[in-house]
């Protein structure tokens, strides 16, 4: 089975009526990923509105936001809301989802939304190969690319799978926030613990969407990424990075310190996977280097990634290039330069302090990484409000989630 017979063709161009109005950008989400989108586009003079939902409101406080609106909670209401915005004068605007759920929403309703908006997310027939890790690993296998050893229990008995420990439980897709999807993965060290944790995970996620995977050893130096803007499988711009530190340290649902690097092998593997998917839009491929030297495909994030503003400091403005691509303009290939660093201090400092206390990181080596020019995830001289409000907003979010009994 060839990769191209597995992953269908990419998106077609939106109808002309969505190109005939003066355009701006609709950023869905209010977290720090969305903040990076807002600043990139706003600095270019592009009108930006934010559709905020949940507890993350950081991006709504940027000076570059023309207007923020509350985004409904259900998919049906969200699609109806977007179509109402088109009728109210936002037809032809470009939609930038900043999270997994909202990117999946746009992908599932791609044809309907593309009648009125320009989209930075491919249709579901392409998107699902990145969104569903089961499909990602299947495609990687057809390409001869390595991935961690993975077991798929379905509704069966996990004790019969022959799992090797230590291992992790992880969801194949992220459709909602719950203790498993928020943690990204749960570690298990014995058959008894596996059975108990699988039973617990099944209360949050359908059993057929739970994967059991080998725990790949290695520190942040082995956590690698290839991120790109693609046009129907062709890479238009890219960056290779080492995710040196992450939060939490073991499974990292968010990077906290990232460095751009030169690594042709990683770029080649990432490009092969995205070409086979015929991916269109912004995307990050996560890898981990196994102690035996193999480069393992971990995840594909089919939307803007957390540290994307590192690339702007390294010479590639991904949000603006995605805007240009959505407008149908020709993109001259761009590659981010190595040697640039990015940090999100609000998560990097507490994570690193814990690692220092555990003896897994020295204070001197930590401080050395922060010397010199480092791109901050939140602070910007021309847009200071989000940095001033980050900690108060974070504290409020944690308190509200604890009071609701939601995962933090």
Written overview of the protein:
This protein folds into three domains: 7-130, NAD(P)-binding Rossmann-like Domain (Rossmann fold); 149-214, Dna Ligase, domain 1; 220-380, ATP-grasp fold, B domain (D-amino Acid Aminotransferase, Chain A, domain 1). The protein has 15 helices and 17 strands. A hairpin with a 6-residue loop joins strand 11 and strand 12. 36% of the residues lie in helices and 21% in strands. Helix 2 (32-42) crosses helix 12 (318-326). With 408 residues, the protein is an alpha/beta fold. The protein starts with a helix and ends with a helix. Strands 10, 11, 12, 13, 14, 15, 16 and 17 form an eight-stranded mixed β-sheet that branches.
Q: Layout of SSEs?
A:
Elements: H1 3-6, E1 25-28, H2 32-42, E2 48-52, E3 67-70, H3 75-90, E4 94-97, H4 100-108, H5 110-114, E5 118-119, H6 124-131, H7 133-142, E6 150-151, E7 167-171, H8 179-183, E8 186-188, H9 191-201, E9 210-214, E10 223-231, E11 234-247, E12 254-260, H10 264-277, E13 281-289, E14 295-301, H11 309-313, H12 318-326, E15 334-335, E16 341-343, H13 345-357, H14 363-370, E17 375-376, H15 385-404
Parallel strand pairs: 1-2, 1-4, 2-3, 4-5, 11-15, 16-17
Antiparallel strand pairs: 6-9, 7-8, 7-9, 10-11, 10-13, 11-12, 12-16, 13-14
Please outline what is shown here.
This protein has 15 helices and 17 strands.
Q: Which spans of ≥5 residues are poorly predicted at pLDDT below 50?
A: 1-20
Q: Helix share of residues?
A: 25-40%
- What coarse outline follows from CA principal-axis ratios? globular
The name of the CATH topology of the largest domain is D-amino Acid Aminotransferase, Chain A, domain 1
Number of contiguous helices: 15
Largest sheet: 8 strands, mixed
- What is the CATH homologous superfamily assignment of the largest domain? ATP-grasp fold, B domain
Structural class: alpha/beta
- CATH level 1 name of the largest domain: Alpha Beta
């Amino acid at each position: 089975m060839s990769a191209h017979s597995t992953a269908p063709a990419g998106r077609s161009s939106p109808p002309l009526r969505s190109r005939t109005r003066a355009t701006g950008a609709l950023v869905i989400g209010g977290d720090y990923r969305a903040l990076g989108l807002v600043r990139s586009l706003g600095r270019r003079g592009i009108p930006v509105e934010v559709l905020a939902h949940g507890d993350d409101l950081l991006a709504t406080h940027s000076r570059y936001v023309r207007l923020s609106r509350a985004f409904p909670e259900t998919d049906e209401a969200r699609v109806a809301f977007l179509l109402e915005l088109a009728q109210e004068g936002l037809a032809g605007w470009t939609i930038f989802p900043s999270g997994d759920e909202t990117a999946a929403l746009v992908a599932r309703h791609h044809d309907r939304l593309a009648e009125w908006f320009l989209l930075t997310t491919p249709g579901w027939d392409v998107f699902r190969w990145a969104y569903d890790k089961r499909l990602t690993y299947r495609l990687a296998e057809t390409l001869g690319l390595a991935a961690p050893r993975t077991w798929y229990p379905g509704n069966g008995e996990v004790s019969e799978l022959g799992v090797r420990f230590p291992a992790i439980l992880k969801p194949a897709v992220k459709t909602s926030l719950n203790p498993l999807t928020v943690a990204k993965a749960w570690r298990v060290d014995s058959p008894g613990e596996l059975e108990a944790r699988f039973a617990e995970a099944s209360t949050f996620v359908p059993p057929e969407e739970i994967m059991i995977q080998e725990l790949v050893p290695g520190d942040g130096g082995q956590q690698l990424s290839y991120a790109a803007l693609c046009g129907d499988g062709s890479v238009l711009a890219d960056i290779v990075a080492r995710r040196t530190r992450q939060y939490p340290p073991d499974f990292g649902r968010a990077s906290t310190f990232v460095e751009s690097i030169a690594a042709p092998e990683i770029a080649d593997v990432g490009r092969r996977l995205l070409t086979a998917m015929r991916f269109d839009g912004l995307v990050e491929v996560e890898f981990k280097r196994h102690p035996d030297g193999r480069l393992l495909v971990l995840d594909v994030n089919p939307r803007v990634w957390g540290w994307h503003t590192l690339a702007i400091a390294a010479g590639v403005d991904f949000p603006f290039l995605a805007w240009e691509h959505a407008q149908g303009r020709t993109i001259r290939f761009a590659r981010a330069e190595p040697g640039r660093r990015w940090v999100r201090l609000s998560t990097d400092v507490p994570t690193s302090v814990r690692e220092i206390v555990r003896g897994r990181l020295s204070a001197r080596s930590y401080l050395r990484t922060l010397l010199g020019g480092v791109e901050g995830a939140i602070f910007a001289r021309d847009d200071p409000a989000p940095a001033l409000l980050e900690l108060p907003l974070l504290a409020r979010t944690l308190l509200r989630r604890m009071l609701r009994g939601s995962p933090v």
